[in-house]
Structures are given as structure tokens and as C-alpha cells.
Amino acid sequence: MTAPRAAIRGLDAVRGGYTSDADVIVIGSGPGGAVAADNLAAAGMRVALVEAGPEVRPEDMGQAPPLFLARYFWEGGMRLVGGDAPNPAMQGRCLGGGSVMNSAIMLKLPDWVRAEWSRDDQLGAMFDGEPGTALDRAFERVFARTRTQPTPMTVMAARNLRVRDAIAAAGMHGKPLPRAVHGCEGCADCITGCHSGAKQSVDRAYLPAVLQNGGQVFTHSTVDKILVERGAAVGVSGRVIDPDGWQAAGKFTIRAPRVVVAAGVSQTPVVLLKSGLHAGHRVGASLYAHLTGGIVGIMDEPVDPWVGATQGWGAFSEAIPGMKYESLWAPPSLIAVNWGGLGLDFLRSVSEMRNATVMAMVYRGKVSGSVAVGLNGHPRMTLRVPQDEIKVVARGIKTAVDGLLASGARSVGTTVSQVVPERFTDTSQTEALLTDKLRPHHCHMTFNHMFGSCRMSADPKRGPVDVDGSLRGVRGVWLSDASIFPGPSAVNPQATIMALSDIISRRIAGVVA
Fold first, then answer.
1. pLDDT tens across 462-471, in order?
2. Which of 10, 177, 288, 399 is the most exposed place for a label (fewest CB within 10 A)?
């Protein structure tokens, strides 16, 4: 069920500016913000949920992907991360945030990552509790609310099954991926929403309850500053932005003694820094990301890759800790860039698309970086990718290429450029991926999994956010998105974002976590 449209303050309602007041303001309506708003409103607090982007219109889902990106992603889906491997970061700018346009994969934080965070940043207070642990109970609540379940075999279709076979041929054990979807139709259009309403994005799973409990939801409202008086938050101010041309259409101010920031790993530090809240210069001082790779196998028989669950099958590597493989699809107008070539060569390769099987590889590499405010007011992100980690990425890509070739692909292309062949046709050729010539900038990636720009730690020297989610140096400000992760999660982060937000917001509201 989507939120009642009349109850959401759309552009017509906020154009020209507005003022309001609340008990708590939540900045950002994505996985972290929606969960926080839900818990706080359920506890009887007057909630103002502020979203920079518009509500996604059903008629825009599944159609004209470039236009969808232009309207519902930050910087048209081309927000860039600089550094050793300059690549885009596709970040949602709409009601429901990234949950609207991701593949809805929901995985618990692995025990080994959880143990690392507990040891290095002393997050036991966040995770522990009896009976069971607070984090485990939060995952259970989130999975129940989003109707998370393994992807049914009935919607796998040929593409996911070919990935299943490749994973098995590579010596790994795969299985259906758990996803926040109920009644999936296998349309493979997750990146442009879910026109059938099956995907349980947070605008469907959480925001109706926020509204029913009296919450106010403001769209098209970009927060520029958290207002602080005498060391405590008293509200926020910002601009109403019309997505037709992205021009300012008014100003707004909301007053409240509590602010929960869930604007995303790149936008959250920008809001804080513009507000003069740097927490000992630790805000934005760190940034982590999963390294990725794409592999396209061309089979002899038609696959029709646009049929079947977007990402239905996956596996974790036992040989390379922190490496995950999964099936993938996206609209041809977006994914075809991976076919390579220009002009006539490109058109010839696109003719093979019907026979394509696409795999994605995600790796928890030792990557570090930072987020600052750019001259245009947008995030300026940089990442440093060690050469040794690129070698691990190449090993992972080789495993996937070998698996596809062994399971019947007549040729396999990768997203590694310049130093290896465009296509592999035999496993004897794939040693080329292990070349010493490979550098970070040769690997074409998308940094869609980023973390830790405002990391949470008991040690103020390691991060600006305390173990209860509160920002150091100011009263009444909490964070509840991927920016608080002490490091990469090794899995798709949405479920962990939601679980941590569930704990933090329940404790703000005085509810047992």
C-alpha cells in the first residue's frame, strides 16, 4: 500500500515556502529515515519527515530509464566519486530514497563484520540485550514489516538460472537471495521502481503508518542547515526545489528540539558541515565502499535477460572473504554501456543482448576516503583504492568469467578495460585478468554501496557519532543511515541501515529496542 497521496505535501503544497513545527524532524525518507519516522510517530511524537526529492509517480516506473534517473536520482544518477578510480554513485533522490530503485535485497550483517565493529568501535551497547540481542530483534522486525523472503524459483527465469549454473561451475554454493518483495512478477525493472507495487520499498511499507500516526511528510524540500541555539538543535531550514529545472521555489523552516539525519552517506555530512557541526573535524573524514565488477556472458541460446527477478540468485565466496556474487539486470538503455564499442561495433554487440547473462561482483575491500562540501554545495567524495585490493577484484572477476565459460557461455566480457581482452572465449585466456598492469582506473564500477562518512564509535577520535547514534558536540541530533557504519557491511546494506535506525529511533522515543 502506498502512502495516501493527499496526505503527502507535494510540490503544489510547498511551493513558495512554508514554516512548521514538530517534536522531531527526520531528514531523508529512505530506509533509515522512514524507519525512524515510523517508530517516533508510533510513540506519539509529532514527526516532520523532510525529503529533498519528489514522490515517485507510478506512471514513471518502468519507463524511460534515463528520464527516471534524471528526475529521481541525485545529479541524474551521475554523482561522481573521485580518487584512484573515478566512478559514479547512483543515489536516490525521492520519497522512499534508495529503497525505491534498488533490488530490495535484504541480508543480515554477517557475524564476522558485527564482531569486528563490536571489537574495534565498542558497539556492544548497540547490538546487545536480552532476550536475544537488540540487533537481532531489529532485523526480525524489519524483515517482518517488509515481507522479506527468498526469491521464489517461479520468477527466476533463464537469466538467474544461468547465473546459478555459473556459480556452481565456479565451485561456490549459491541460493535464492532474500528480498523485500511480495508477489514479484519478475519484470526486472527494479532500478526504475516497481510498477506492480510488489517491492516493499519504505514508501510502501513504512510511510503510510507515519501518516496515520499524525506525521507530516514534506517533499521537494532540501535541508541546507540544522539550526542550533546554545549548543542544542532547534530545527532546520532549507529550500523548496522544483525538479523541473531543479530551481528553488521557496524557503522553509521547521522548528523542533530533535533532529534525526538520514540523508545518506554523501548528503548527511554535507548537511552537518554546512551547519557548522563537524564533531572535532570527524564529520566526512572517513568514507568506505564496496568495490564492484560486472561480467556479461553471451550464451548460445536466447536468455531474454529482461525477464525474471532483477537479482534473484547469489553466493558468497569462501576463497575470498567479503566477496559476493549475484545475478543482475537493468534497462538496456542503462546497462548496454557495458557492451563496449562505438558506432557500428556497438550496434552489432547489442544484437547479442537477448543471449546475455549478467553477473555482478561486490567486494568488501580495504578502501578509504572522505566527503567534503564541493564548490557547488554538493558532496565532493574521494576514495583511495589500494593496488592489492584491485588484484583481489581481478581474482573475483576471473572466478565469475571462468564459471560462465564453464557453464556454456560462448564469450564473456568484463568491466575491466584497456589491459585485458574485450571478450574471453576460453578459460585458458582468463589469466590475463591477473596482470600486474591492472590499475584502479581500469575497473569500471558503480559505488552504490558506500558507508561510514560519519562513523559510529565509542572513541571520539575514530568517529563523530556516539554508540547511541547521537552526534558529538551538539544536543538533540542523531544519525540513522549508512553514514554511521564503522566500515563496509560485506552485504547489501539496506537491512542493516533499517535495523540500526530501528534501534536508535526506539531509544530516542523511550521504547525498548
1. 999 999 999 9
2. 10
